Amino acid sequence: MVKRAALVVATALAALASGGLAMATPAHAAAQREARVSMLFGKALRDPGALRMFLRQMPKGGDLHNHLAGTVYAEDYLAWAASSGLCFASGKLLPPPCPVGTSVAEVAGRDPETYAHAVDALSTRGWQAGVSRGTVSGHDQFFATFGRFAPASDGHTAEALVAARRIAAGDRLLYLELDHDPEAVSGYMAASPDVPLDEAGLSARYDAEIGSIEPVVTRAMAELDGDERKAAAQLGCAGASPDPACAVSVRYIGYTLRALPPAAVFRGLILAFALAERDPRFVGVNIVQPEDWPVPLRDYALHMAMFRFLEGKYPAVHRSLHAGELAFGQVPPAALRDHIAQALDAGAQRIGHGVDIAYEDNARVTMTRMARDGIAVEINLSSNDVILGIRGAEHPLRLYRSMGVPTVLATDDQGVLRTDMTHEYMRAAQEQGFSYSDLKASARASLEYAFLPGMSLWRSHRLGVAVAACAGSWSSAACRSFAAANEKARIQLDLERKIQKFEDDQISMPNGWHEM
Ligand SMILES: [Zn+2]
């Protein structure tokens, strides 16, 4: 690591020399600033504490792969469970009445050992090193937590939003794209009749469903109105001293559950598309749950056909698909052959995880296509480590980057996994060889590939090359009116300003690890 840090410093010095200290154009000033901060980053890389401090302060753009329910830490769920009178028994939260000694409120007050068991049961605490505990894999532990904390998450969406926005603000994130289904949606999806459904039957099934979809969408929108209002009130967003979390912009991605029977998956997907078409807060659709379970493996091609069918009905709705969240040996080789390619054929505009790409039959063709079409991969390093045991050189992040595929760092389920975006940046630096410039590019990419409305600040995905309106100066009248008309560009400009301030602050910082 020291060797790599030395290389970073040498490269930065060379950049400084070639830039010429006397050059005063904004582009040269920016290059010089980045080179100096790269040197400081190189020093911080030698010490995890210093690196954490450096990266915590670094503005990081957006988190594009973040499940709202999985963002909440177990301790928050336990606090909500205590206030709702829930019990912790048989390794999970349960509704009252509570058998003696199992009331979460009592446990939290006077039984720290049971409380610790509860935190362990509702998270992957202890699995971060990729070590399974007993006979339970990180995969099984991770996916089991959602059912265990569900009684505490129900009815607490506003509190979850507060938690997600606060964590994001602490991580210097400006934007969250949260996977979230309002309870009106999840309830109606779960109530679907289990009627047989194949690709040929999609059109007739859609016609049978669509009449009852709109009222559910209306209820879901009203539900989110209430949750957002409550969250904003809890954060004091309209008051004199709003919580910093109020500054984090939030959009949502509705999803279907791939382990349900086909008719329910389809109903969930129709709801997600219809919601995204009507409510601008929902900027896309997704499909979630373990890809390796038997039903998701069996129905994968049918699910992709559902996406293709609904894209014909709702062409303006964005699509991010979990695909290739699989590992060699975890499933039979046939299951590794083409899930990512199939997701692209089904219209995916971003891929979640994409871990098994090297095992796909046409991996090179697929990655070339992603690079050409600007289809980004949402990279979740801690998640892939805990759930799949894929880390370090085994992870395809380098491969994607070497093929020119855009990538963004994301947290996936930071509460369950007990990570945060700063930690994901640390892993990218320590395990994947990211330089400061690479991390900065990742922060920019996280807004570039967001499903935010409006045009980008950058020209044709060339991060750092501004559109004509902003090419001269961020503060010109033309750039200001461009940003006012395009929300994506506005948040991108905000990131650029914050990065510049961060770099200035780092350079002017007098003491500390700089001297190490
Ligand atoms: Zn996910």
Q: What is the 3D shape?
A: globular
Text of the CATH class of the largest domain: Alpha Beta
In the CATH hierarchy, the third-tier topology of the largest domain is known as TIM Barrel
Which strand-content bin applies to the residues?
Answer: 5-15%
In DSSP terms (H or I, runs of 4 or more residues), the helix count works out at: 23
Let me know the CATH homologous superfamily of the largest domain: Metal-dependent hydrolases
Number of domains: 4
Query: Any idea what the CATH architecture of the largest domain is?
Result: Alpha-Beta Barrel
**Estimated helix fraction:** 40-55%
Count the E strands. 12
Main sheet, how many strands, which sense, barrel?
A: 8 strands, parallel
What low-confidence regions span 5 or more consecutive residues with pLDDT below 50? Answer: 1-23
- List cofactors, ions and other ligands: zinc ion
Secondary-structure class: alpha/beta
Query: What is the C-alpha radius of gyration, as a whole number of Å?
Result: 23 Å
Distance from N terminus to C terminus (CA atoms, Å) equals 15 Å
